[in-house]
């Protein structure tokens, strides 16, 4: 699908103007494990969606499928009305359009911070080196690590590394940013510095999907909470509704566990 209707009459196959990421009836198995079960999820432009749920419920697989780090068995995923490309340059561009921030930072260890944020712009976006470097410095400044530009990732704290990872994704001018438990590997005193950068992005209108257990972030930044359990989307609601009045027993049980520790 190209964003233009080709199947006249099938109106529900045409993405609405504001839809950016659309998953329709997505299924995925790992062997016998049905890890994504009939997932329907639409993320509109500028929306911040927090995905929560117990460990093993399929949250990471969902994010990875949107970035095509995992293939799906059936269903459709479109970004901006276009199906996910299979391979090659198109796939590299998709990965640039869909910025991904992982729990484990995933910076290139043998490149400096500045090189980490410059590389993709030159290789994938074909920017000239000078412009890419200037943009990288501006982004490093924006996430508060400008002074670290010439260091290697291992010389930075976890919170600093994660902010570099965010800058690296932003350097590609992504259409949407996916965060998969971006603060879970951090020491407690570094969590806020990363959440603040994410809050800022949300305020600026970035479309974001955030897997997190940080309920404060969900309450203050999310437009919508999606609750997953056992490979299914069990509930979707505003943070207000979800936290004050979860409907399913699974969500009630999950919230009682994470809110009372
Ligand atoms: N590459 C894989 N091969 C086999 N099983 C996997 C793989 N990745 C994830 N799983 C399993 O799929 C389920 C969902 O995993 P995941 O998406 O990581 O859940 P979550 O992020 O919600 O904790 C888990 O049971 C996990 O063990
Ligand atoms: Mg996970």
TrEMBL record:
Pfam families: ABC_tran (PF00005). It is a peripheral membrane protein. Residues 21-255 form the ABC transporter domain. It comes from the Bacteria. Its EC number is 7.4.2.1. Keywords: Amino-acid transport, ATP-binding, Cell membrane, Membrane, Nucleotide-binding, Transport. The keyword Cell membrane applies. InterPro entries: AAA+_ATPase, ABC_ATPase_HisP-typ, ABC_transporter-like_ATP-bd, ABC_transporter-like_CS, MetN_ABC_transporter-like, P-loop_NTPase. Transmembrane segments: none annotated. GO terms for cellular component: plasma membrane. Belongs to the ABC transporter superfamily. This is ABC-type polar-amino-acid transporter. It comes from Streptomyces lunaelactis.
């Amino acid at each position: 699908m190209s964003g233009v209707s080709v199947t006249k009459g099938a109106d529900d196959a045409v993405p609405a103007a504001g839809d950016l990421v659309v998953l329709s009836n997505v299924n995925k198995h790992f062997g016998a494990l049905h890890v994504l079960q009939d997932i329907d999820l639409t993320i509109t432009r500028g929306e911040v969606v927090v995905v929560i749920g117990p460990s093993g419920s399929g949250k990471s697989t969902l994010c990875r499928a949107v970035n095509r780090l995992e293939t799906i068995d059936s269903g459709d995923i479109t970004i901006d009305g276009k199906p996910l490309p299979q391979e090659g340059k198109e796939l590299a561009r998709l990965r640039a359009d869909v910025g991904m921030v992982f729990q484990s930072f995933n910076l290139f260890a043998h490149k400096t911070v500045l090189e980490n944020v410059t590389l993709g712009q030159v290789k994938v976006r074909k920017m000239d080196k000078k412009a890419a470097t200037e943009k990288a410095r501006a982004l490093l400044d924006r996430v508060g690590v400008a002074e670290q530009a010439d260091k290697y990732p291992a010389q930075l704290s976890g919170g600093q590394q994660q902010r570099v990872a965010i800058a690296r994704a932003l350097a590609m001018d992504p259409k949407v940013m996916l965060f998969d438990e971006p603060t879970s590997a951090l020491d407690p005193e570094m969590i806020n510095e990363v959440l603040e950068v994410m809050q800022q992005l949300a305020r600026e209108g970035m479309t974001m999907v955030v897997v997190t257990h940080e309920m404060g972030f969900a309450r203050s930044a999310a437009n919508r909470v999606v609750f997953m359990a056992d490979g299914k989307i069990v509930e979707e609601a505003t943070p207000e509704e979800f936290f004050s009045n979860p409907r399913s027993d699974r969500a009630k049980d999950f919230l009682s566990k994470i809110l009372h520790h």
